[in-house]
Amino acid sequence: MSFNKLKTFILLLLVTCTTNANSTDHIANIFLAEGNKVKHIDFTFSKNKIVPIHEAAKHNNIQQDKFEDKPQLPDGRILLKPTNKKVDQLWEYNASRPGKYWMELVYSLADGNSTAIPNVNSYRVSKKLNATGSKNHFHNINLGKIYFTNSGKQKIELKFKGQKPKVRAVILRPAPEGEKIEQNIDRSILLHSRDTTIHGTKVQYENKPHKNTVGFWVNTSDQVYWDFTVASGGEFYIEINQGCGRNQGGSQVSLSVNDQKIEFTVEDTGHFQNFIPRKVGKVRLNKGEHRFWIKPIKKAHGAIMDVRNIKLIPTK
pTM (2 decimals)? Predict the structure, then answer.
């Protein structure tokens, strides 16, 4: 093999190694999904492998977030790599939709204390960072809820005061658009679009008064859900307030909670904001916490539907 060919081979080998998607350089975060909640796990590296620092991880399947070519994952999370070797970070991100996100920082800090100071639109609430004990011991912390008021270019800034941590990643995780949902006195439960959580990239809560709906539903991979608490269980009718533009009906949609699933066909209501209440099935809910999903199955035309709310109404 000639010297030039050998040099080319070594260069290709180095590129292959450094761009390996399974490399620890590409890991943003690891976590456990426990029911409807996500538990973050502290982690470190040993012999180029991730080692979770969490007892439960020994008995559960852990999940890993990886940096990909595009920052946004199909479920709506946005993974941001450190932008430079300096500790203060600045990202300019082209948001696919407006909406609310939890801003989470994955960092390490050998000793001392630091303060993280985010700056996203009007959100500038600082957060104390505790030492993790080692520069190779990473911890996840929630910096608060940020809001993209519109799609398009966003400035995401993160500065630090005090000891300088090592930034592993910033994760923007879709957050509830509104308030916590509780059961009403009459035992009914209102799942309003303003309180939904987005699980996707294009579907969104449209907050204009004449809309006040989940809309822009053009991707079948986009889903939404509501977390709520049932104080008095039983059987409930599912009533969906659904709108759909002229000649846009016919999409297939699934509603699911726990292991129960109801499928229905979207009706043409003449306009996406012409909402018509439809009883599409029943569901049984026990006392406790639940997550109610809307998951499109098949899109018939340009968009699936708009949803203003879902009411769970006691059958007796």
Answer: 0.89
